[in-house]
């Protein structure tokens, strides 16, 4: 969780990118729900304030937090040195890892040429820095990358292991390929 200001109000507004289950998603009533919402609600209960939740694109969370458009951001944000220079973080509450997915029987890590990653994520950073064999394509959301994967515009996706696991449970034609990536310089 990232924060840029101290809070002394009766209400605390958290921003998140709600297309990232199980961390955050929108239910049929339009409410943001998920693991990060549960964490935020526990924080609000502990400090005796009311939680409010605001939808924001992932790549605008830190710039908007710095501009004080909300009080805190909580959206499976990996802590990096660059981000920690911009905003304050809580202690890590989730051990992040990355994984690759592809359509079943369509691509391997060796045969893939095009990779999809979400804008502003450590997965995008890792892909650019460490995977020169792929041509990266950035997406506003993981769901957009999934659509391009299904239509053959990209071969593989790199993303958060827990999020991709949730996605695979709903998209049986997609599978994990290769090993988890646990580079502590990038994912922590």
TrEMBL record:
<dbReference type="Pfam" id="PF00497">
    <property type="entry name" value="SBP_bac_3"/>
</dbReference>
<comment type="similarity">
    <text>Belongs to the bacterial solute-binding protein 3 family.</text>
</comment>
<protein>
    <submittedName>
        <fullName>Arginine transporter permease subunit ArtQ</fullName>
    </submittedName>
</protein>
<dbReference type="InterPro" id="IPR001638">
    <property type="entry name" value="Solute-binding_3/MltF_N"/>
</dbReference>
<dbReference type="GO" id="GO:0030313">
    <property type="term" value="C:cell envelope"/>
</dbReference>
<keyword id="KW-0732">Signal</keyword>
<dbReference type="InterPro" id="IPR018313">
    <property type="entry name" value="SBP_3_CS"/>
</dbReference>
<feature type="domain" description="Solute-binding protein family 3/N-terminal">
    <location>
        <begin position="11"/>
        <end position="187"/>
    </location>
</feature>
């Amino acid at each position: 969780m990232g924060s840029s200001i101290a809070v002394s109000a009766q209400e605390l507004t958290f921003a998140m990118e709600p297309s990232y289950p199980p961390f955050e998603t929108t239910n049929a009533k339009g409410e943001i729900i998920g693991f990060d919402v549960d964490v935020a609600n526990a924080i609000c209960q502990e400090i005796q304030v009311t939680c409010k939740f605001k939808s924001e694109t992932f790549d605008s969370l830190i710039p908007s937090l710095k501009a004080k458009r909300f009080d805190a951001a909580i959206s499976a944000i990996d802590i990096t040195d660059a981000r920690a220079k911009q905003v304050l973080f809580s202690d890590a509450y989730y051990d992040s890892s990355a994984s690759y997915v592809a359509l079943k029987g369509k691509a391997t890590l060796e045969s893939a040429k095009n990779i999809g990653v979400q804008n502003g994520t450590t997965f995008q950073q890792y892909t650019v820095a460490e995977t020169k064999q792929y041509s990266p394509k950035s997406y506003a959301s993981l769901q957009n990358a999934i659509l391009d994967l299904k239509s053959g515009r990209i071969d593989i996706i790199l993303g958060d292991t827990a999020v991709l696991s949730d996605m695979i449970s709903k998209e049986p034609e997609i599978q994990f390929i290769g090993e988890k990536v646990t580079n502590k310089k990038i994912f922590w």
